[in-house]
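G., before I forget:
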Amino acid sequence: MISRWQQFAQSSFVYSFRNDAIAIASAIVLFACLTASFSAPLIAPFDPYDPMQIDLMDSETPPLWQQGGDTRFFFGTDAQGRDLLSTILYGTRISITIGVFAVLLQAFVGISFGLLAGYVGGRLDSLLMRVADIQLSFSTLMVAIVTLAVFQVAFGTELYERLAILMLILVIGIAEWPQYARTVRASVLAEKKKEYVDAARVIGFKPSRIMVRHILPNTLSPILVISTVQVANAIVSEAALSFLGLGMPITKPSLGSLINSGFEFIFSGSWWITIIPSIVLIILVLSINLLGDWLRDVLNPKLYKD
Amino acid sequence: MALLEVRKLEVQFAFREAALTALRDVSFSLEAGERLGIVGESGAGKSVLAFSILNLISKPGYVSRGEILFGGLDLVKLSREEMRKIRGNRISMIFQDPMMTLNPVLTIGTQMVEALKAHQQITNAHAKEIAINNLAQVQIPAPEARFAQYPHELSGGMRQRVVIAISLLTTPALIIADEPSTALDVTIQAEIIELLLSLCERNRVGLILITHDLGVVSAVTQRTLVMYAGRLVEDAPTREIVQHALHPYTSGLINALPQYTSPGQPLNQIPGVMPSLHNVPAGCAFNPRCPYVMDICRTTVPEYTIKTNTRVACHMVAQQ
């Protein structure tokens, strides 16, 4: 009898992963980003949130390899004298956190609505899907900009700065749920016609149980695939909002607000404040997307490539 | 008291243009432990009848008239919650294709334990014990190992055994089997049918066997209902049906069996096809295909003629 682990190691899933150089590379990069950013308090040379460690005299120090570089600051410092490497590590952590939780929220709302719409059908289906259409007809950024701007004006920047992470998660989460709802609904409509659903009804299960326990697991592969894309999208949305000054405050910067904060200095020669966080953002999003592409190919056997 | 008594059941499908009557004036009864066969061509209403007993006709179908008495309860009038307690508990159903009826992402064990827990307050360990016991009862080798496997790891015959084991979990009084052997290959068919028969006999479970295989019906059932275009045309002990069917449709079905044709000859067929429910002919629905058609058949729906154990809806039989 082979163990579960051996069974997993021999599966076609693992096999196709091991034979896909891009998938391995992006998994390694992503894993490195994740470990580095989430162990930031341990490995970062400075704590960018601690004003005591910041000296304004150090501001705009170029990276180590450039003339005028300082051995203490590998990537140089930003306009306030914060070590850029530490700030990027902390900022990546914030970006990933917002991305993942926003997608969890999207998934929760979208999957519930999609399951209900697909399984119950009829008027509820039409209602939920029209709500989804309306939601989709506003672009994510527009909804986010309006909501966040109104919040800042109504409750003041101080409260906003404290709740920024939560607000971004909420706004990005709510704005993108229809992606999930549509995908799940489409799979549910296909699954609902299969006989095992009839069999489950004949056994006398409650509709809620049939939806969650019997149909949902059968719709997981498209959910997994869009989840990767959505995490990347959410990180990009957050960066865009922060770049516009509506995201994370500069005292607790995410990658987007870092890019923004350096933007005004780019012509005075301090390119690194903008460019280095941008490269990190691109690498992060690219590795998630490439991994998502691989996952889509593996989970959709109809898409065999030669 | 009969275990199941269906009285003047009428099922309609309400479409936008018109309501179609899928079942009309269907009455029959089933004693505890009795085995009943329902035969007829595709579209005769066999499956609709099965689903209407479980109150699971898919929309826009609904029971428009009649009663379905099960143990004295009218299933048509039960609330959803009350019906759910009967479904899968007192009445089980076995479907045609075991490849499709088991959930592909759950293990056999999970599905069995779930089915038990849906109807009984029971611990997981106890449920597992019952499940493995039932798997052994349907002659599945190494039931403990099968318990942890997924449906795709089993063959078609094994899966149908699992389905039967699930249907017997809650010791139902009635099992409705909708073509349980059609999707299996011939040698497995015989095994499954034999298994079903012996289990029903041993546990005194009533069985409604829906099929178009008259061979299976004659091997398993005590009584047979023949359906045509949503109506019962003949209700008789199975032996009577096989030996001397009264209704021309029934005898047409029997004559169509390959063993009634001499070698080298084309098979006997009933000419024509069953009418669609959109345009059922006036009078007896079978009249356009009937070799003995009379004038009255084209105008008047035949009443049931009752002879000792048999009911037949045919003008010719009535006049004999």
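Chain A is about 70% helix and 0% strand. Chain A touches chain B at residues 194-196, 198-206, 209, 213-214, 217-218, 220 (CB under 8 Å).

More on Monday.
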